[in-house]
Amino acid sequence: MRLTRPARRAALAAGGAAVALAFLAPYVVMLLDSLKPAAELRASPPRLLPTHWQWSNYAEVVRDPVFRSALRVSLEVAVGSTALAVAAAVPAAYHTARHRFRGRSAFLFLVLVTQMFSPTALVVGLYREFFELGLVNTTAALILTNAAFNLAFAVWILRAFFASIPREIEEAAEVDGCGRIGTLLRVVLPLSRPAIVTAAIFAFIAAWNEYSVALTLMTDAAMKPLTVGITAYVTAYVQHWNLLFGASVLAIVPVIVLFALIEPYLVSGLTAGGVK
Amino acid sequence: MTGVVVYPAAALVAASLGRYSMTGVYQRGVGLLNYRRLVEQDALPAVIGNTVLWVVVVVAATVVVSLALAQLLDANFPGRRLVRWAVIVPWAASLIVTSKLFVWIYDYYFGVLNHLLLALGVLAAPIDWLGDDATVMGAMVAVGVFVSLPFTTYVLLAGLATIPADVYEAARLDGASPWVTYRAVTLPLLAPALVVAVVLNLIYVFNSFPIVWTLNDRNPGFGHDTLVTYLYKIAFKSALRDVGLAAALGVVNVLLVLAAVVMYLRTVRWQGAEA
Known about the structure:
The structure holds two protein chains of two kinds. Chain A is an all-alpha fold. Helices cover 76% and strands 0% of the residues of chain A. The mean pLDDT of chain A is 86. Chain B has a two-stranded antiparallel ribbon. At the A-B interface, helix 1, helix 5, helix 6, helix 7 and helix 10 of A face helix 1, helix 3, helix 4, helix 5 and helix 6 of B.
């Protein structure tokens, strides 16, 4: 049986709404509970909506020195490692896109291997390395680690994009007197803005959300990033679920905005990146 | 990359061959003793069983559900943009935030899940989802699938975008039903994207740390740990605090993932590497 066009569209839209609800529901619970007074979280059976909307929870989180220092560390690590990863990925991706070198499959394999040597598997080795270098409890340690683990993915996205730029454009620039570096800076990079922005946002989000390395290397309370720091709101001794969720909402919102910005590039980025 | 991948990898192998004090001071080389001790750990068989269950069920369920989701999000309907944004949210939220959130949702007294299931009449009495040995793994698997869906769906969406429209047109002219078209046209052409989705998920899910770490936090011992959380407990948390033993397990873990990926790529006879 074939549905008529309007009926098909309506059925798809209804399915879409159900999917959206399923994905958002847990985070709606988080948002609503972040606005409840502590006593209301201890209601059994639980109510979905707060009876008293306690917006001051957010003021309390923002004033909290623990949250502030965690936010500072997270920003330093995410910005630093993104800058480092993109700065290293651009020349590496350009080189591999423009030169035929032995074994492109070897390169693909390298990307897979870095994914495999995930920070969690290497955490013992990483701890020993940074311990010997005296870099435990420094943002430098997290910046280096995140940049390295996000480098492969950034190269992956950028390489595919550089390869899609017609060589003739670069040859024309060289005829007009641009050197190799000049061509890269004045022709290739401006054309590649969408790909570079996508790679940068991916690196930023990965660093912003990283947990296990930060948990291991940042033992000093003042050096913990948001992912590790916010867990202090709920421990065996204190149960500030509303503050935990308030801090979580504040940590998530910028990432959702960044993701929404690159959503149009997400499909084409992954297509170009290897799903061919 | 050398400093943060190659060096720690080497340090890991070196550490797995040595003996360390509880405070992490190197004492002497012991050859393969750590590996032998690892095999003798009482918790190991259960941890390996948990890991196999965790990886196989999460990856399989994620890929199957993502195939359906990708098909839906590839179709054209009003509000598609908003649904795509909604699907991204668990990807954007850090795993630790989502894990903590589900600890709360699964809570015996105050959690919304028990309340909902009681109200719907599905349950007669509340369940201690994360404290009951019978439910904790299922509860963790559900969260594992939930957070793996967005990325996997987008990889498959990217795969669907590479299938040219005229192939579908040809199938339609031949009178193929939607299901036959899906089986005979879409799935074979989606194969490369499926391979990428499975391989990356195998790696990510095996190495996944925050979900099991957080949701299993209340339970003592290693009864519901995977190899990755077991490693972390050996190295930094439990009474063992054994760097050498943890390093040996780290080496085994990396080799296991490598073996799983190579085996999978062999079975599907992957030709995509040179593409």
